[in-house]
Amino acid sequence: MHAQLVSLPSVSSPPKCHFRIENHQYAFCGGGYIKLLPDGLDQSKFGGDDEYHIMFGPDLCGYDVSHVHLIFNHKGKNLLKTEKIALEYADKNEFTHMYTAVIHPDGTYEVFFDLESKAKGKLVEDWDFPKPTIDDPEDKKPEDWVDETLIDDPEDKKPEGYDDIPSQIPDPDATKPEDWDDEDDGEWEAPLIDNPEFKARWSTSSFFNPRPPSLSARFHPWRQWHHHYL
Asked: Fewer CB within 10 A of the end CB, N or C, for the chain?
C-alpha cells in the first residue's frame, strides 16, 4: 500500500512517524514497514528494491528475532542502527501495537513501542553517518614530539638486594606448643607474618616532563569540517 505525501507547512514540533500494525502470524517470520520515498517515484512501478529515505517498522521471526528497524538512506547507502532496537519477548504477540519514531531537529531521535521508549540518542553516534568533523590529514605529529607527561627519574636506582627481601617471615615470637609431637604432627614451623622490611615491588619514581607544554602530552590532530557530512 502506498500513497503520495502532500507537502506540509513547517511546524515547531519535530517530525514523527506513527503507525499501528497487527501480526496474526507473530510466531513466524514477518515484518511490517513504512517507507518515506523520494519525490518523483513512479508509484505504478513501486517495488521492494526501490530507493527510500527512511524505512521504519518491526522485524519478527520465530522466538529469536524481535526488534524494530529504523534505516536511513544517506547518499544511496542504507544505514542500519549499530545496535538493534530490541523488543521484549512479551512484546511479540497477535495484538495490535503502535510504533513511533521521532526525529528532532538537533540530530537526536527516539523510538517508541506502544508509547514506551525503546531507544534514543544521537543519529551520528548510532548510525554510520559521516561525522561533523574529522582529523586534519595534513596535521602530522612533529618528529620531536614527546607523548609522555611523566618520565622516570634517572637518578632513582633500585637498592642492591631489594628483591631478596621476602614479603613474609616466620613469627619470631611464636613458640612450639608443649603438646606438639614431631613424630605425629611433623616438624614444627613457626607461622608466617608480614615482613615489616618488605617494601612491595620496586617502581622508579616519576616526575613531570620538563619539555614545553606545546611539545608534550598526547598529540591530537586539528579537527576540520567534514565536507561529506551533509
From this structure: N
